[in-house]
């Protein structure tokens, strides 16, 4: 039986947990939101790498046998380090879906909205260098969006104004494909759709990440868990707020799993 740990700087990774519960519901899950320290996207690389490793150690001590780094920023800054420290555990990361985007784009103009740290990371540069494409990529750091999402301001005038500002260069370039390179941003999908219109394809990589999780669970012989299946939701700031977001985003989880919540301090 498998317990899978999923972590993010905050509530963003719930978008990945939601997909994990859709594709691989027969497991126990521990979700850890480091909301006391969000956003990661503007912190130093060393800080993000060290903190991500600490959280992974904590999840393993809680019994996790596989980990999803449900944060593009932590994946960019820390995944190599985590895999090096934990060779016996499958560790799945997430990165902006540039590959599917450049394949899908018809007019060869692709927008990438991600955190500042993701965009300036070596991993992102390596991702771009490894792709053979003739697309124009318009990248934009989503500065200020994560704190608004964490506070629940998913359709406030302030969020809309900031998002319009961040998307304006992409719109001027007439992108037909937009990559959401931060797991928090799918929370803004309705607002993004309102701004970019129905024609732009929006790419979120959660589905591909969970497919990779399923392959790894098989490879590591991690079996499905017997009922009752449990989801433990932990926040370093406010477990009640995390629960509210989880209930809104993944109501079905509460039918299939027993959900426990707790606020934790992780030093
Ligand atoms: N959800 C995160 C990501 O995918 C982190 C956002 C942040 O904390 O800045 O990059």
Structural write-up:
The structure is a single chain. The two termini are 29 Å apart. The protein is of the alpha/beta class and 267 residues long. The longest helix has 17 residues, at 45-61. The chain folds into two domains: 3-94 and 206-263, Rossmann fold; 98-203, Rossmann fold (3-Layer(aba) Sandwich). Helix 1 (14-23) packs across helix 10 (206-219), helix 2 (45-61) packs across helix 3 and helix 8 packs across helix 9. It is 45% helix and 19% strand. The protein has twelve helices and ten strands. The site of D-glutamic acid has 16 residues, from helix 3.
Short description:
With 267 residues, this protein is α/β, with parallel strands linked by helices. 45% of the residues lie in helices and 19% in strands. The protein is globular.
Our count of helices gives 12
What is the averaged pLDDT score?
96
Strand content: 15-25%
- Number of E strands: 10
CATH class of the largest domain: Alpha Beta
Key attributes of the depicted protein:
4-stranded parallel sheet, 6-stranded parallel sheet, alpha/beta, Rossmann fold, binds D-glutamic acid, 267 residues, 12 helices
Tell me the layout of helices and strands.
Layout: E1 3-8, H1 14-23, E2 28-33, H2 45-61, E3 66-69, H3 72-85, E4 91-92, H4 98-104, E5 109-114, H5 116-120, H6 122-129, E6 136-141, H7 145-150, H8 157-172, E7 177-181, H9 189-196, E8 201-203, H10 206-219, E9 230-235, H11 239-249, H12 253-256, E10 258-263
Parallel strand pairs: 1-2, 1-3, 2-9, 3-4, 5-6, 5-7, 7-8, 9-10
D-glutamic acid is lined by residues 8-9, 12, 38-41, 71-73, 115, 118, 146, 182-184.
């Amino acid at each position: 039986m498998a317990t899978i740990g999923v972590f993010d700087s905050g509530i963003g990774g719930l978008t990945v947990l939601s997909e994990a519960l859709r594709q691989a519901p027969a497991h126990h899950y521990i979700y850890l939101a480091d909301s006391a320290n969000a956003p990661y996207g503007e912190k130093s690389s060393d800080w993000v790498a060290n903190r991500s490793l600490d959280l992974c150690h904590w999840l393993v001590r809680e019994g996790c046998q596989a980990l999803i780094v449900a944060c593009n920023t932590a994946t960019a800054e820390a995944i190599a380090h985590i895999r090096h420290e934990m060779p016996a555990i499958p560790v799945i990361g997430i990165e902006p879906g540039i590959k599917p985007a450049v394949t899908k784009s018809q007019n060869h103009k692709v927008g990438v909205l991600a955190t500042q740290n993701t965009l300036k990371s070596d991993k992102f540069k390596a991702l771009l260098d490894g792709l053979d494409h003739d697309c124009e990529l318009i990248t934009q750091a989503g500065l200020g969006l994560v704190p608004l999402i964490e506070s629940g301001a998913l359709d406030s005038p302030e969020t809309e104004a900031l998002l319009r500002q961040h998307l304006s260069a992409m719109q001027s370039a007439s992108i037909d494909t937009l990559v959401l390179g931060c797991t928090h941003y799918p929370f803004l999908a309705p607002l993004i759709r309102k701004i970019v219109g129905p024609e732009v394809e929006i790419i979120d990589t959660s589905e591909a990440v969970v497919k990779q999780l399923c392959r790894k669970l098989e490879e590591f012989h991690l079996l499905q868990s017997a009922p009752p299946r449990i989801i433990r939701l932990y926040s370093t700031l406010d477990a009640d707020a995390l629960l509210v977001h989880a209930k809104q985003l993944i109501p079905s989880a509460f039918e299939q799993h027993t959900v426990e919540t707790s606020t934790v301090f992780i030093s």
